[in-house]
Design goal:
single chain; mainly alpha; Arc Repressor Mutant, subunit A; globular
């Protein structure tokens, strides 16, 4: 059963119940990318600009910029401009607690799967 809060929001935006699953796919699809997960985990330590993210994670600048765009569009991160730099930070209200919950779940239910796959 779909939560009444998300259903009410979707209806107020002109979307039907079937559209909600598209939103779920976008949300969970954002978490499928290993590079986006690395960026989210790095941002747990504090805000960073693109250059800092690229250097600390040894990722391609273009890919990082695209990943940050997707993370921002989906509300996972926010931005703050300081001088000529744009700093990205984790959404502290919803995403940080969600990542902590995911960590707890994985520790109890998923990590053991890695042993079986090796």
């Amino acid at each position: 059963m779909i939560n009444k809060t998300i259903l009410k929001t979707c209806h107020s935006e002109g979307f039907g119940e079937g559209d909600i699953y598209g939103a779920y796919k976008i949300f969970f699809g954002t978490l499928v990318s290993e590079s986006r997960l690395k960026i989210l985990n790095l941002l747990r330590k504090g805000k960073k600009n693109v250059t800092e993210i690229v250097n600390e994670l040894d990722l391609n600048q273009t890919a990082v910029s695209h990943d940050l765009s997707r993370l921002k569009k989906c509300g996972f991160v926010s931005t703050e401009i300081k001088g000529k730099y744009r700093y990205y930070s984790l959404n502290e209200e919803t995403i940080k607690p969600l990542l902590e919950l995911i960590d707890k779940h994985m520790a109890g239910h998923c990590i053991h799967i890695l042993r079986k796959e090796k």
